[in-house]
Design brief:
- The structure holds 2 protein chains of 2 kinds.
- By secondary structure, chain A is of the alpha/beta class.
- Chain A has helices at about 40-50, 75-80, 95-110, 120-130, 135-140, 150-165, 180-190, 235-240, 245-250, and strands at about 5-15, 15-25, 30-35, 55-65, 65-70, 80-85, 90-95, 145, 170, 200-205, 215-220, 225-230.
- Chain A contains 9 helices and 12 strands.
- In chain A, the strands form 3 sheets. Chain A has a 6-stranded mixed beta sheet with strand order 6-9-10-3-11-12, with helices on both faces. In chain A, strands 2-1-4-5 form a 4-stranded antiparallel beta sheet, covered by helices on one side. Chain A has a two-stranded antiparallel sheet with strand order 7-8.
- In chain A, helix 6 (about 150-165) packs parallel to helix 7 (about 180-190).
- The longest helix of chain A has 15 residues, at about 95-110.
- Chain B is of the alpha/beta class.
- Chain B has one domain (about 1-465).
- Chain B contains 11 helices and 22 strands.
- Classes of the chains: A alpha/beta, B alpha/beta.
- The interface of A and B includes residues 50, 74, 90, 107 and 143 of A.
Chain lengths: ~260, ~475
Amino acid sequence: MSLLEIKNLHVTVDGNEILKGIDLTVNAGEVHSIMGPNGSGKSTLAQVLARRDAYHVTEGSILFEGKDLLEMKPEEAACEGMFLAFQYPVEIPGIGNTYFLRSALNAQRKYRGEEEMDAMDFLPMFREKLKLLEMDDKLMNRSLNEGFSGGEKKRNEILQMAVLEPKLAILDETDSGLDIDALRIVAQGVNSLRSPERAMLVVTHYQRLLNYIVPDFVHVLVDGRIVRSGGKELALELEERGYSWTEHEPVGARA
Amino acid sequence: MRATTAAAVADTNTGLESWLENFAEFTKTAAGEKLPWLKRLREDAFERFCEVGFPTTHDEDWRFTNVSAIARTEFRPATSTKLGPGDTTAWRVDDVAASLVFVNGRFDLELSKLDRLPKGVTVASLREQIESHPEEVEKHLGRYADTQRDSFVALNTAFIGDGAYVHVARAVVLEAPIYLLYLSTKEDAATVTHPRNLIVAEDEAQVAVIEDYASVGGESAVFSNAVTELIAGESTVAQHYLIEREHLKAFNVSTLRIQQGRSANVSSHSLLLGGGLVRNNVHPVLAGEGGECLINGLFLGTGRQHLDNYMHVEHAAPHCGSRQFYNGILDGQAHGVFHGRIVVHKIAQKTDAKQTNRNLLLSDDAQIDTKPQLEIYADDVKCTHGATIGQIEDNALFYLQSRGISEVEARKLLLMAFAEECVERMQSNVARAHAQRLIGEHLLFTEGIAPQTGTLGRVTERKLEEVG
């Protein structure tokens, strides 16, 4: 059984069809990259997978470990092992970072019938993960993402992912707005989480991130459809030639 | 005779007869009725009340709050009731310097605790203090609260009987707060109390007072008409906390009048959780140079609650700063009001006044009226005000849910976070912990936390901001 099986997915937002029949299969241990120009539907796909309710699925199906993902609420999908690293992480004043993350972890553990973690067990594990992302623990005493720089927000997303240990992690434009140092740290964090049990879906506009997080598969999304799929070399070709050719050249040329 | 004049006026004002009767009855046994100054204070105030009666919505200061339910109810004075310690344990707050319990407006010595006070701090019931040290009371009582402008203050002043008296001597620092608890019990008839508190903190002193209104037993129409005068001397640090958590049949009108000396630092914190019809007046006068005033509040309304906050910050000396922060969360058909009036007198140059009112509406029928009112007569001042009205943000809700937190829990977290902004400004650990506990308990029963059916309303945040 595949970890994720998307079949003929059609999605509309405010009456406009954004995704026009997506087929995608992701197996455990694989890293897939979704590339495409702005407005092609990459982020919509990411948000649908995380179960944002503003997106309406009009056709098709998504199975997550064989279960119907479209029947799940966002929190259920999360507890089943879905994780979305947001393109724009939300600032929430008044909710402490550490408190939030422990609440989330315990909500997931409870869902899975595991014992909740108390602060004594949580903190050492949490400190390890902070080190991995080279994050200052002073940030963790502050409110969730409040006053964080762009880079700090993105690192915080990966930190959450490291703590929650999802089965499928979706990185939505995690590279945008990062300088090269921050990019390296984020990629290092992501790479350390690669494992045979975990799959990743890296959504990006640029090839740059893929130098650090090397994908097994690259898919090109244009106007709501996957127009081309290939190996990591496809990303390099896109970097050189842009996206427009992918719609016109026959797919048969691919390896 | 004064009472005759009042009677003549009362005839033309329907609904005032019962007050006239109450007043005649009250003055027979009132504390210090033999003191000419106090007798006169009461009579003048009653006369003023009879002249003007209760305000109506035609009155600019009462535009959003209709008090006709109070005006047309015949309230009897609440009678003293004996409560056992068991009845009040639920209300106790630990780690306070002293606690005074008032049951139906009467001081209850047995339920109170006054034995831990350091030297230089006097805490007593006002009734006692009027009888034992009238000259101390006379220096301040009724000098600040304005009976001319506000008929509720006039009514309270007419019925000055009991309440708390707090005096902190020069340079005495009292770190733990003084806790005042006003309990009303269920009665067969509609009843009224007029708690009157006098807090005097001399130069360089430090004091914190918590005023907490709660109900015991079932619901009946009770009306608390409270006035607190807080006098802060030079370089004095004073904190006042108002907590309203009565049942939904309660009427609560409370007025906090603060008089600040030079470089005094005073804060007023309000937490409105209960009460059916609540009016919270906070009126600081920054009368000495370099004074600082923080006005912080949180109101949580549900059902058909009406919670009105009327702030009136008066800058009467140069180089003073004032900060107002009020957050409202309204659910059901609740109606909230924030009226932020700032008056900067001609002499008050270099005033720095800021006002912020943020509101969350959790239902379509909830309503908020927010109104800034700036009157600036000096030319070198900084005054800003801003108000927002919004809903729980979809983005924030989704973000929390996407990490595995249930929708109900996520809503609760977001509301707690919104409330926490106000709680964080409370300087006293004891008051903060008390507030946190009460808010947590209160939110458990707030309807808006429960998931709404259908799609969630989209984020609509209106931002009204102006810099003047």
